[in-house]
TrEMBL record:
InterPro entries found in the cross-reference section: Lysozyme-like_dom_sf, Peptidoglycan-bd_3, TtsA-like_GH18_dom
Transmembrane segments: none
Domain TtsA-like Glycoside hydrolase family as annotated: residue spans: 18-101
Domain Peptidoglycan binding, residue spans: 104-165
Pfam families (alphabetical): Glyco_hydro_108, PG_binding_3
Lineage: Bacteria, Pseudomonadati, Pseudomonadota, Alphaproteobacteria, Hyphomicrobiales
Protein name: Uncharacterized protein
Length: 292
């Protein structure tokens, strides 16, 4: 009998081997939102990893195999709870997560399962997994993935590589789904050699950088609510100051300004509006909202 932990490690290494075939070596395509990338690990991610370990920054081109494996295991494999996914499904979700973010990959799987797409795998998701046909689930996940990729603004640059990667991952995932551990973990389905441009296209990170509606981001929603509250406060205090400054058919502008400036409601409202503007423009920091 295969030890559970040994089986999980073997599955991780097998799936990682498939992903690395598509990720290739070093890439720094100017159209790739991931930027400088080595074996699928982007520079920003590598910087954060080394910072957590109190290590100095260095080029991602110098990343060691041990560092790669640790990042892939903890930031991707464990994030999608791949140990608990059926064989084949683990590869489909893991590779999707590497290319477009674990959260998006999990949500795609949950939508395919017909459960709430929260991005968190709980007992409801696990129960649904136990009752689904792995082949059908792999196909449903890959269908969603292709649809998402085709809608990205960088599809013109990376689309050919992304589609080829999807075809290869789906082919291998279906070959592994439902097979015994001995068969599923034995060998990789080979792919032709890539030319440089196609390899870079397969590596391109597939992130949705601009949400469909700005107010769909947490910052956007917060900015709208804060701005509405601040604007309401400014209007109320303005009316109050105008009433105080108008007397006997005469409007005292100086009194209006002094009354307005000293009104706590006005001060809070202005601060809220400034905060809303900052939050609105700051929503861009949620770039790749579901991907990172």
């Amino acid at each position: 009998m295969i030890n559970a932990s040994a089986d999980a490690e073997a599955r991780f290494r097998a799936c990682l081997g498939q992903t690395l075939k598509w990720e290739g070596g070093y890439s720094n395509d100017k159209y790739d939102p991931g930027g400088a990338t080595m074996h699928g690990i982007i520079q920003r991610e590598y910087d954060a990893f080394r910072a957590r370990k109190s290590l100095p920054k260095q080029s991602v081109r110098l990343i060691s195999q041990a560092e790669e494996h640790e990042i892939y295991q903890h930031s991707y494999w464990d994030e999608v709870r791949a140990d608990e996914l059926p064989k084949g499904v683990d590869l489909a979700v893991f590779d999707y997560g590497v290319n477009s973010g674990p959260l998006r990959a999990v949500k795609a799987m949950q939508r395919a399962l017909g459960v709430s797409a929260t991005g968190n795998i709980g007992q409801v998701t696990l129960d649904a997994l136990s009752a689904v046909d792995p082949d059908e689930l792999v196909e449903a996940i890959m269908k969603q993935r292709r649809g998402f990729l085709k809608a990205l603004k960088t599809f013109w640059r990376f689309g050919k590589g992304w589609m080829r990667r999807c075809d290869g991952i789906e082919q291998q995932a279906l070959a592994w789904a439902g097979t015994s551990a001995a068969v599923a973990l034995g060998g990789f389905m080979t792919q032709p050699e890539f030319d440089g441009d196609l390899q870079a296209a397969c590596q391109g990170k597939a992130y949705d950088e601009t949400p469909e509606k700005p107010w769909d981001t947490p910052e956007g929603k917060s900015a709208v609510a804060t701005g509405a509250a601040g604007g309401g406060g400014v209007v109320v205090s303005g009316v109050h100051a105008a009433n105080a400054a108008y007397s006997g058919g005469h409007f005292d502008l100086v009194l209006f300004i002094l009354t307005l400036a000293s009104d706590p409601t006005f001060q809070v409202g202005v601060a809220a509006l400034v905060g809303a503007v900052i939050g609105w423009f700051g929503r861009g920091r949620i770039i790749r909202q579901e991907a990172v």
